[in-house]
Specification:
heterodimer, A: mainly beta, 7-stranded mixed β-sheet, 4-stranded antiparallel β-sheet, B: mainly beta, 6-stranded mixed β-sheet, 5-stranded antiparallel β-sheet, 0% helix, 56% strand, globular
């Protein structure tokens, strides 16, 4: 049971570089989410998707873009990385938005921007 | 503004005693609440939930209490075990009429169970 898989697990970038974080789920879930976790800030929603081909902004969307071309994949892009984007990023998926069916999380991507 | 708040960043409890984790919210349109547990280097996992039509929900050693008038919920763990040491997040979902497709998470409380 793979569940939600995030790649890569760790990455170090220089300021201004770009990269894409990949999230893949094998549970046929409609809803997918990207969060960031920072000390003292909890989990903050960056972007989310309620189905293939859809995306929506969350609480902290600036500096990030997302795409959901296939139902099982949700990509998070950083076009020009900044030190403020140093964080642990979590992807999650759910069949109902996390209300009656919990959100299932990946194990995170630790990203450092120098 | 933080709509879901966990005012205690950390809590230490002796093994076998009761652990009480608290969570406050400000948005009266939240009507479904959840607790997630997170171990280091892992993603959060769902623990227990409660609908606003109830004031209590139990699952084994875990009980969640909801006080709607005070906009407060708490998670009780009895008895506490070393494996309960983790970060606990409370989360809230809006009423279906206001967009229940996402959750709002609190800042988390690190629980340490002392053997």
């Amino acid at each position: 049971n793979a569940g939600v898989t995030q790649t890569p697990k760790f990455r170090v970038l220089k300021t201004g570089q770009s990269m894409t974080l990949l999230c893949a789920q094998d549970m046929n879930h409609e809803y997918m989410y990207w969060y960031r976790q920072d000390p003292g800030m909890g989990l903050r929603l960056i972007h989310y998707s309620v189905g293939e081909g859809t995306t929506a902004k969350g609480e902290v969307p600036d500096g990030y873009n997302v795409s959901r071309l296939k139902k099982q994949n949700f990509l998070l892009g950083l076009e020009s990385a900044a030190p403020s984007q140093t964080s642990v990023y979590f992807c999650a998926s759910s069949s109902t938005g996390g209300r009656f069916e919990p959100q299932h999380f990946g194990d995170g991507t630790r990203l450092s921007i120098l | 503004d933080q709509q879901v708040k966990q005012n205690s960043p950390s809590l230490s409890v002796q093994e076998g005693r009761i652990s009480i984790l608290n969570c406050d919210y400000t948005n009266s349109m939240f009507d479904y609440f959840l607790w997630y547990k997170k171990y280091p280097a892992e993603g959060p996992t769902f623990l227990i939930s409660i609908s606003s039509i109830k004031d209590k929900n139990e699952d084994g050693r875990f009980t969640v209490f909801l006080n709607k008038s005070a906009k407060h919920l708490s998670l009780h763990i009895v008895p506490s075990q070393p494996g309960d040491s983790a970060v606990y997040f409370c989360a809230a979902s809006l009423d279906i009429n206001f967009g229940n497709e996402k959750l709002t998470f609190g800042t988390g409380t690190r629980l340490t169970i002392i053997p």
